[in-house]
Amino acid sequence: MIVGLTGGIGSGKTSVAEIFQTFGITIIDTDEIAHELTHENGEAISHIKEIFGGEYITDTGRLDRVKMRNLVFTDLSMKKKLEEILHPLIYRNVEQLIPTIESLYGIVAIPLLLETGYFCNLIDRILVVDCPEELQILRTVQRSKLSQKDVRAIIKTQISRKERLARANNIISNDRDFIYLEDQVRKLHSEFTSFTKMK
């Protein structure tokens, strides 16, 4: 069984994935794959340079993430062009990694799972990490160099909280402390394990 882990920016997807990992569950992180693709000599670099120009590649040969972020969150057509480069490459990587999963079930962390629909045929269940928007903004501002205005702009490009929750098979609420979060993951781990053993 493959679980697609998603949620809005700052919702706590990474924390949830890390807890699942402590239970021995394999995590495939599409953000990590995207970083590998856009590092120096990454598979996506030549495509990005061709479409966006050399000014979006640093002197060390990797994607200038700040410059690209400023572009794609002010021009949605540019965001689409970047996704058209990255998503097929990420998809291929995920497709190759899924058969290597040795745990009873696997988790693929896909921040834009519901926005793109690109990876839906690879997963069996959608797990959404949820928290109020103001908490998303606070957490993202604290962990990054983004302003509140920047974070709100990113949230506007993502699917609404209401729709995300409506499409979830399972929901984890990340609006309290770590113990509460861990307890929810433990219960879901037990549920997923039982479900997998029954199949």
Describe what you observe in this structure.
The protein has 2 domains: 1-25 and 103-199, P-loop containing nucleotide triphosphate hydrolases (Rossmann fold, 3-Layer(aba) Sandwich); 31-102. The protein is an alpha/beta fold and 199 residues long. It is built from 10 helices and 5 strands.
Topology at a glance:
Layout: E1 2-7, H1 13-22, E2 26-29, H2 30-38, H3 45-52, H4 65-72, H5 76-97, E3 106-109, H6 113-116, E4 125-130, H7 133-143, H8 148-157, H9 161-166, E5 170-173, H10 178-198
Helix pairs in contact: 2-5, 7-8
Features:
single chain, 199 residues, alpha/beta, Rossmann fold, 2 domains, five-stranded parallel beta sheet, 12% strand, globular
Short description:
55% of the residues lie in helices and 12% in strands. It has 199 residues and is an alpha/beta fold. The model has no long low-confidence stretch (mean pLDDT 93).
